[in-house]
């Protein structure tokens, strides 16, 4: 019986896709036939189907080819995939994401604890291409990627707001479809991804927001982090003007179709947070004058007593609870997130994910030099100019010829 369906959208990405499919072979502690993989090709013209056809597979595999059209978009491809899925749960991976052999086991463990939630995880940004044999042999996972040079933006955000997404004012903003999973029944209820989003960005944030409005827990799982294969993109790279324009159009659309967003998170705050690199502060709770309590987790045997104390304390307002987990217990991490948005905020910090602020600042100084910041300002000004032109055209449409 298929429990989990993995949907992988792709477009002219055959070399990276081969690694992704190989990594999904021989998943641990899940019965044979317990998961399937569905690749949805959004009109590739690089012979992707032929390139991946000869990969030995230990799972049911389906390849769907869509012709390119004006309706082509990321949302359409993902919708085509999950609607063909037979699993109770649907996981979405991008075609450049390599997962460990424990991926299915860890995902299943979370959904066994609570079936009705949206699970997301993070990426390690690789710096050079990965050979197929490195994936097949498992050597690619023998390296420790938990260092500043491989982290993605959400890793750095979590240094401040912590890895407890339930404590955030706006956890849906952390939802990226490159590595996420949720029940198929919820996708049916939501109607899937909104295909009105064209170009780059926001179709995954939108579905995260709609899940959040349904009352679903949005949780992170550090046990299913993926390796983002290098193909010319690294942390700190600036988005092109074209991508910035597409993102702006899509976020404008999201605010138009969800009027409540303007009250929950004013649009200007998003623009300011991205420009000033203050996204985590935008997502965090803003209570003041709280009594701080720190819990350090060192022994497995101490966890039940700590849980009882944390649950009692968090049910009362007025506290800021900091959990520093030296064991990095994934069960404790999930338990804290399933407590939800508690009257007193709980922040969770696993030991090996935390870095000294001075170390992070030095790293940012290398990644975001002044020259790059000037380029960012220039691109933002171009974006504003583009918005102004669109606004003028809407206000003064050209007369139609008779």
UniProtKB/TrEMBL annotation:
Query: Sorted alphabetically, which SUPFAM superfamilies does this protein's record hold?
Result: Nucleotide-diphospho-sugar transferases
Classification via InterPro entries: Galactosyl_T_C, Glyco_trans_2-like, Glycosyltransf_2, Nucleotide-diphossugar_trans
**Domain spans labelled Glycosyltransferase 2-like:** 5-128
Pfam families recorded? Glyco_transf_7C, Glycos_transf_2
Q: Which domain of life is it from?
A: Bacteria
Domain annotation Galactosyltransferase C-terminal: ranges: 169-221
Regions that span the bilayer = none
Keywords from the UniProt entry: Transferase
Q: Which Gene3D superfamilies match?
A: Spore Coat Polysaccharide Biosynthesis Protein SpsA, Chain A (3.90.550.10)
Is-annotated flag, keyword Transferase?
yes
Q: What is this protein called?
A: Glycosyltransferase family 2 protein
Specify the species: Cohnella boryungensis
């Amino acid at each position: 019986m298929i429990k989990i369906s993995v949907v992988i959208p792709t477009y002219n990405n055959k070399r990276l896709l081969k690694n992704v499919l190989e990594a999904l072979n021989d998943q641990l502690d899940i019965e044979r036939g317990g998961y399937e993989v569905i690749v949805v090709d959004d009109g590739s013209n690089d012979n992707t189907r032929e390139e991946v056809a000869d990969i030995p597979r230990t799972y049911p595999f389906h390849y769907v080819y869509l012709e390119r059209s004006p309706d082509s978009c990321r949302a359409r491809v993902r919708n085509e995939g999950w609607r063909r899925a037979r699993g109770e749960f649907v996981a979405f991976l991008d075609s450049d994401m390599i997962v460990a052999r424990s991926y299915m086991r860890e995902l299943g463990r979370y959904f066994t604890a609570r079936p009705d939630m949206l699970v997301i995880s993070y990426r390690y940004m690789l710096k050079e291409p990965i050979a197929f044999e490195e994936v097949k042999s498992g050597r690619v996972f023998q390296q420790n990627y938990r260092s500043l040079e491989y982290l993605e933006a959400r890793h750095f955000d979590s240094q401040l707001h912590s890895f407890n997404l339930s404590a955030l004012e706006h956890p849906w903003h952390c939802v990226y479809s490159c590595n996420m999973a949720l029940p198929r029944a919820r996708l049916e209820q939501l109607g899937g991804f909104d295909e009105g989003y064209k170009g780059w960005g926001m179709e995954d944030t939108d579905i995260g927001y709609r899940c959040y409005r349904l009352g679903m827990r949005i949780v992170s799982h550090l046990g299913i982090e993926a390796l983002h294969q290098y193909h010319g993109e690294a942390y700190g790279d600036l988005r092109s003007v074209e991508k910035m324009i597409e993102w702006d159009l899509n976020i404008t659309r999201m605010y138009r179709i969800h009027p409540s967003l303007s009250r929950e998170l004013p649009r200007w705050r998003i623009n300011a947070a991205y420009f000033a690199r203050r996204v985590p502060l935008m997502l965090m709770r803003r209570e003041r004058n709280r009594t701080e309590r720190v819990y350090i987790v060192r022994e497995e045997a101490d966890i039940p007593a700590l849980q009882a104390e944390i649950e009692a304390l968090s049910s009362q307002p007025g506290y800021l609870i900091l959990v520093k987990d030296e064991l990095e217990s994934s069960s404790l991490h999930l338990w804290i997130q399933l407590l939800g948005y508690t009257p007193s905020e709980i922040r969770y910090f696993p030991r090996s994910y935390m870095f000294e602020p001075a170390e992070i600042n030095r790293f940012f100084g290398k990644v975001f030099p002044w020259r790059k910041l000037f380029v960012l300002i220039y691109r933002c000004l171009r974006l504003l100019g583009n918005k102004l032109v669109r606004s003028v055209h809407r206000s003064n449409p050209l007369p139609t010829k008779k």
